Amino acid sequence: MSRAFDAICIGAGQANPFLTDRLQASGMKVAFIERNLLGGTCVNTGCKPTKTMIASAYAAHLARRAADFGVVLPGGSGAEVTVDMKVVKGRIDAIIHDSRSGLESWMAGMKNVTMFHDHARFVGPHEVEVGGERLTSERIFLDVGGRALVPELPGVHDVPFLTNAGMLALDAVPEHLVVIGGSYIGLEFAQAYRRFGSKVTVVEKGSRLVAREDEDVSVAIRGFLEAEGITVRTGAECIRFARRGDRTEVGVDCRDGAPIELASHVLLAVGRIPNTDDLGLDRAGIAKDARGYITVDDELRTNAAGIWALGDCNGRGAFTHTAYNDFEIVAANLLDGDHRRLSDRIEAYALYTDPPLGRCGLTETRAREHAKETGKAIKIATRPMTRVGRAVEKAETAGFMKIIVDAATDAILGASILGTGGDEAIHGILDTMYAGGTSTSLKRTVAIHPTVSELIPTMIADLKS
Q1: Angle in degrees, 0-180, between the axes of helices 184-196 and 215-227, rounded to the nearest 10
Q2: pTM exceeds cut of 0.90
Q3: Residue 51: inside a domain
């Protein structure tokens, strides 16, 4: 015997709770299923806790620089600043708890929703089993998220290691943190823990950090991380692990530097995988790609009729803001008589190192490749953050800003702002792109002084082929 619902929502990431509210408010009877914690990665092990941690690390960094601003700390030099990780962790835990509790209270008040705290598996095209009970619906929405990838490197299962979730459980400063992976998650943790007082080494298999970005961005990021005392080991073609007493030996086959790093703690930050391997997707005929991500069309429908995939598990964004936009697309198409599509979305994200990187649209590398393929021309302009008054005033002048424009149409193709406030300033460019504006319209904007954003129109005036 099975229970019928108008909709079944599986997973409590950043899409399904909002979609559930819209569905139940429209009068549908909804089954909401989550086997672990409400809020998904963002609330529990991602955005909320890591940016809280980074805020503490920034405070420690500023305290050490206090004398540069004419501030004298009790006890003397700012270099003597220490960090109480138990307090840092307590603050992180409190913010996680508040966020999750708010979500739980909100969802508990939804009248037409039945909550199931258990693991769901498909047993047929429109039937799932949860807690020994079978539920059916003609509409099923998957928002099951992802988890850290544990790579099959030699010796990895013979040594203790941490992922992003494990890092947030630490209540002491590691003596020597070795980060495997020189991309977004790894670099944020690397810089934060260096500022907390750890010796930090970043090991990256590729030839440069954050390889998804333009080379000038990668070079600049490496520069300010090394300036803070972080050791960066790129070109690590053969990474291996072994126990050596209470330490972990990390073998690093690089052209430069010692062949071995001895770590007190190892963080694996080499990517994410979707939580799709234990849902019984094959019983519903739901297709996945080679990496395990559920394939979806432009409206987030899977190949199985009446089943949608949202958030990290569809491989079409992997950010909180893209997951929320997935909800908006599905809700608009199902409930509002609107027609919204994934292809309308402009890629945009940030790397929360200090300074942060704000990115939207195409990189310069991709724009040049596209121009070569199509025969079109592009224009590019850059400005170092040393030319930005706001950055000079804050004594945070690392980085630069860059914009890429279609030479024929004046359309903005993409931009990077690596610098203080870059994660916020990028929105002026992103908003212009969504509004269909041109670089000329942005150039004529009268921006507020003194801000980082005010240099964007000035930068655009220097566009060159």
Answers
A1: 20
A2: yes
A3: no
pLDDT tens for the 465 residues of the chain, in order: 799 999 999 999 999 999 999 999 999 999 999 999 999 999 999 999 999 999 999 999 999 999 999 998 887 666 688 999 999 999 999 999 999 999 999 999 999 999 999 999 999 999 999 999 999 999 999 999 999 999 999 999 999 999 999 999 999 999 999 999 999 999 999 999 999 999 999 999 999 999 999 999 999 999 999 999 999 999 998 899 999 999 999 999 867 777 889 999 999 999 999 999 999 999 999 999 999 999 999 999 999 999 999 999 999 998 999 999 999 999 999 999 999 999 999 999 999 999 999 999 999 999 999 999 999 999 999 999 999 999 999 999 999 999 999 999 999 999 999 999 999 999 999 999 999 999 999 999 999 999 999 999 999 999 998
Looking at the 3D structure of the chain, how many domains does it have?
3
Same domain for 357 and 278, yes or no, is no
**167 and 121 in a common domain:** no
- The answer to whether position 76 is within a domain reads no
CA distance 29 to 7: 7
Question: Which tokens sit at 232?
Answer: 């960066």
State the DSSP H helix or E strand holding residue 233, giving kind and residue range, or none if neither.
Answer: strand 231-233
CATH of residue 226's domain is 3.50.50.60
Task: Identify which of 201, 154, 159 has the alpha carbon closest to the alpha carbon of residue 181.
Answer: 201
Is 218 contained in some domain? yes
* 141 and 20 share one domain: yes
Q: Are residues 366 and 331 in the same domain?
A: no
Domain range holding 232? Answer: 156-270
d(CA 206, CA 218): 12
- Domain end (from 270, 298, 332): 270
Dmax over Cα atoms in the chain, in whole Å?
Answer: 73
